[in-house]
Amino acid sequence: LVNIGNIYFRNENYLLAKENYLKALDNFKLFEDQEMKNYGLATVYDNLALISLSSKNFKTSEEYFNKASKIRGTLQKNEDLLYSKLGFLRLYIEMNNHKAVDNIFREICDFYRDKVKLISEKDVSSSFLTRNYGYALIRIGVYHMKLKKYDEALNYFENALNVLSSFKVELPIIETYLTEIHYLKNDLTRAKKSAHVNINKLSKNNFN
After folding, report:
1. CB 33 within 8 A of CB 14
2. I need a surface site. Which of 1, 24, 97, 133 has the fewest CB within 10 A?
3. How far is it, in rounded angstroms, from Cα 102 to Cα 120?
4. pLDDT for position 201
């Protein structure tokens, strides 16, 4: 039901997406395995938050994100806790609440720096905690790009490229953003070079 809801969501059929998510919510509530139950409930609440966000219903979206975050707090999985913080980052960006964006992004960075110490050095780059932190860097980069703060955006994208180096499938979009940033800064030489590098890597399937 969640997967069916996701298909409807991707096609912007939010009514049917919500219908399937709510059915999934009822099903997860019947699970006896508490961990699986909580994981399912948190996922559904996140998805319902995104539906509310699509219609700019910020209050309801925040309520759903809070429910998901509270449940994840009981599971104590750092990568999932960071994922919940990503939801709030997305919400505050949509709300154009710049102070809240700055605060939650600072919280994300502090959380990552603290929790990444618990992961063995050889596993850091491929951990889901690092992946979710990389997603935050991309999102904050796009945020600064829309604010026309191109130097800050460039820094975040370059950082994301490094952080997500073990997640090859995520790299093309970052390379695309880097090309766009160089173009917006009127640095056409670097924009062309960046685009060429990205196309070359894609043609050689270097992102897999």
Report:
1. no
2. 97
3. 29
4. 75
**CB-based burial of residue 155 (10 Å sphere; 0-12 exposed, 13-18 middle, 19+ buried)?**
middle
Q: Tell me, rounded to whole angstroms, the distance of Cα 78 from its chain centroid.
A: 15
**Structure tokens that stand for 42 in this block:** 């948190």
Say if residues 207 and 171 touch (Cβ distance below 8 Å): yes
- What is the amino acid identity at position 174? I
Q: Is the dihedral of CA 49, 53, 57, 62 positive or negative?
A: positive
Phi, psi of 52, rounded to the nearest 5 degrees = -65, -40
Tokens of 13: 């059929």
What contacts 24+ positions apart, CB below 8 Å, involve 116-119? 118/78
Global confidence as pTM = 0.90
Token pair belonging to 45: 């609440």
CA pair distance 116, 81, nearest whole angstrom: 13
- Is the separation of the CB atoms in 156 and 145 below 8 Å? no
Regions of the chain with pLDDT less than 50: none
Give the type of residue at 10: R
Question: Of 152, 169, 52, 57, which Cα lies nearest the Cα of 101?
Answer: 152
Res 68: pLDDT: 96
Question: 68 near 60, Cβ under 8 Å?
Answer: no
Give Cβ neighbours of residue 18 (< 8 Å, ≥ 6 apart): 5, 48, 51
